[in-house]
């Protein structure tokens, strides 16, 4: 029980730390509100579930041990973050006040698009693969069946992802009422776009070019 609580604590600290998934939740919640941010939060959650399965498989071992594979994942992730960043920088929210509720009837992406954004932000981030492969073995007991232990750890992590992102969304949705309409949301989109691009730049800079050249 103590080990499980320790795992929950580490997971909470990791999930709550700033990253592309958290930024996406904050941006969507501030721009569209908590209800409309939920598809993205669900996408991030299921993406993390997919990452945990990959990390537990031989595919995860191949990716984490291969400079080529890890760098390819980083490049794909960087490209997607640049896409999201440019999309935010170009966006011009058209706000309407209807019954004191702020809506984006013309600029709100579809539910599928918001889910897809969250899912790919998680799946194209190589850091969780390494994190899971480093963390899971510390809490897996060799004398016990692997599947039940993995299921508990992975489902716990995914549940925490959803709850923490939901909390972020709730807090930021409450804060959006204090932000002036029009220009305030425009500034949020600009800042969010720049930060996404900074995340992508960090991924690109972390690519080990020498290892890729030597492996050719």
From TrEMBL:
It comes from the Bacteria. Pfam families: LysE. One of its GO terms (cellular component) is plasma membrane. It is found in: Cell membrane. Its main location: membrane. Keywords: Cell membrane, Membrane, Transmembrane, Transmembrane helix. The chain crosses the membrane at residues 6-26, 38-62, 68-86, 119-140, 152-171, 191-213. GO terms for molecular function: amino acid transmembrane transporter activity. It is a multi-pass membrane protein. PANTHER family: ARGININE EXPORTER PROTEIN ARGO, ARGININE EXPORTER PROTEIN ARGO-RELATED. This is LysE family translocator. It comes from Pseudomonas gingeri.
